[in-house]
């Protein structure tokens, strides 16, 4: 590992993905290349546009863009206005195409088999290799938007402590961040349909994703031996062009990026506005700090959890969100819960009260206020289901998701 890397919780990388849709009917528009070219002010097609500590970039499909803080920020507090300003700027550019940005983790009526177009410019060879191996005209590839949180580590010891904490927390994240209850016009019965699709999107090479929850490995050498080596061996059968033998092939819910000295958390759905995403990221980092500090249980107790056991809890929160029943007293004890069972939402409320008390010096802390509203009214998926029900009319879906686009443009939460 490289010397002088940032240590635990010394910086935070946040990446948010958005779709480009037509303003009127919300049809997906594969014009991210044109949008980024206009954003760069040049004639050439580009993959990235950097703007004063923020950056826009392309993704695998041509109707998707990513907005991130670049370089990683030293504090999450106060980032939401920067994201809001960038979204306003991009929406202004998109007016020329009769387009706008749409939030939430899945388009509610997109049909990927007919509407998918891959990014056609630089790095297209990588995307074409993915398509050749897995067929990207599916919801787990072409219809998903997530929020990524990148957290640094300086050495093997810090990696082990951070990886143990992240593994333990991953199963609880959909209870806070699920925003994808609809697919092709109907409720799926799940709050986090994006994650359900995602966990099967690389089934032809299962070593690339494992049980979504990473294996209990806590050193770089062990990670390369137990995760990377089987993954690369398996993908070689599908990747005849040898474009995918890289760390980014790892599709677990949290991935180690040893080239960057960071772990990227990928389980969270993107929300209706950056204020919601950053509020969630704020509580997630507070819980991870407490776990790393061994507030409720020691490091060795955190390390022993098998991926398959944690995955069972992840399935429960994927389906029921904050209403998922948690019935393993040992798991609850690891987060300071004294009872034998509870709903996931109740555990999150306790963690919020314990770790984010009101600050008299900042009575209107926007991140804390947003999080309190999410915990009171439920994750975005719950609020959408309450408004639309299981079988909404197309016109009603369009109306509500247009309102989500308005929430993104205005930087406000939906339905609270």
Walk me through the structure.
With 416 residues, this protein is an alpha+beta fold. It has one domain (117-410): Creatine Kinase, Chain A, domain 2 (2-Layer Sandwich). The protein contains 17 helices and 12 strands. Strands 1, 2, 3, 4, 5, 6, 9 and 10 form an 8-stranded antiparallel beta sheet that branches. A hairpin with a 2-residue loop joins strand 2 and strand 3. Helix 6 (156-169) crosses helix 10. It is globular and about 55 Å long. The model has no long low-confidence stretch (mean pLDDT 96).
Element order, helices and strands?
A: EHEEEHEHHHEHHEEHHEEHHHEHEHHHH
- Major sheet summary line: 8 strands, antiparallel
CATH class: Alpha Beta
Question: Any low-confidence stretches, pLDDT <50, length ≥5?
Answer: none
Second rung of CATH, namely the architecture: 2-Layer Sandwich
Distance between the termini: 45 Å
Task: Tell me, rounded to a whole number, the average pLDDT.
Answer: 96
How much β-strand is present in the residues? 5-15%
Question: Main traits of this protein?
Answer:
Creatine Kinase, Chain A, domain 2, alpha+beta, 42% helix, 17 helices, two-stranded antiparallel ribbon
List the helices and strands and how they pair.
Elements: E1 13-22, H1 32-40, E2 48-51, E3 54-58, E4 64-69, H2 80-94, E5 99-102, H3 112-115, H4 124-134, H5 139-142, E6 146-152, H6 156-169, H7 174-177, E7 182-183, E8 186-187, H8 193-198, H9 220-235, E9 254-257, E10 262-269, H10 274-292, H11 299-303, H12 307-320, E11 325-326, H13 329-333, E12 342-343, H14 344-355, H15 366-377, H16 380-388, H17 394-410
Antiparallel strand pairs: 1-4, 1-5, 1-6, 2-3, 3-4, 6-10, 7-8, 9-10, 11-12
Helix pairs in contact: 6-10, 10-15
């Amino acid at each position: 590992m490289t010397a002088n890397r940032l240590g635990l919780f010394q910086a935070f990388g946040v990446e948010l993905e958005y779709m480009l849709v037509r303003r009127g009917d919300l049809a997906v528009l594969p014009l991210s290349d044109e949008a980024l070219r206009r954003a760069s002010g040049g004639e050439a097609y580009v993959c990235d546009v950097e703007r004063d500590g923020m950056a826009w970039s392309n993704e695998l499909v041509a109707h998707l863009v990513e907005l991130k803080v670049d370089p990683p920020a030293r504090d999450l507090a106060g980032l939401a206005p920067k994201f809001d300003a960038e979204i306003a700027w991009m929406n202004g550019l998109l007016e020329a195409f009769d387009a706008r940005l749409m939030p939430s983790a899945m388009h509610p009526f997109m049909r990927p088999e007919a509407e998918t177009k891959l990014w056609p410019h630089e790095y297209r060879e990588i995307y074409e290799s993915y398509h050749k191996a897995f067929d990207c005209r599916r919801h787990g590839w072409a219809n998903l938007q997530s929020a990524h949180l990148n957290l640094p580590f300086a050495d093997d010891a810090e990696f082990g402590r951070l990886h143990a904490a992240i593994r333990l927390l991953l199963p609880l994240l959909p209870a806070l961040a699920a925003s994808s209850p609809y697919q092709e016009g109907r409720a799926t019965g799940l709050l986090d349909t994006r994650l359900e699709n995602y966990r099967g999107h690389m089934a032809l090479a299962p070593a690339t994703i494992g049980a979504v929850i990473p294996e209990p490995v806590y050193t770089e050498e062990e990670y390369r031996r137990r995760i990377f080596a089987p993954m690369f061996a398996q993908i070689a059968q599908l990747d005849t062009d040898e474009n995918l033998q890289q760390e980014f092939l790892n599709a677990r819910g949290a991935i180690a990026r040893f080239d960057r000295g960071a772990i990227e958390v990928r389980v969270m759905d993107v929300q209706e506005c950056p204020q919601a995403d950053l509020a969630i990221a704020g509580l997630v980092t507070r819980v991870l700090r407490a776990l790393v500090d061994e507030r409720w249980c020691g490091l060795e107790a955190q390390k022993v959890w098998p991926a398959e056991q944690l995955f069972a809890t992840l399935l429960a929160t994927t389906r029921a969100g904050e209403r998922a029943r948690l019935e393993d007293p040992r798991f609850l004890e690891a987060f300071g819960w004294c009872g034998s069972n509870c709903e996931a939402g109740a555990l999150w409320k306790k963690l919020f009260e314990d770790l984010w008390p009101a600050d008299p010096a900042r009575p209107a802390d926007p991140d804390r206020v947003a999080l309190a509203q999410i915990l009171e009214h439920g994750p975005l998926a719950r609020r959408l289901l309450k408004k639309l029900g299981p079988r909404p009319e197309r016109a009603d879906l369009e109306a509500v998701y247009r309102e989500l686009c308005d929430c993104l443009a205005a930087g406000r939460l939906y339905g609270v």
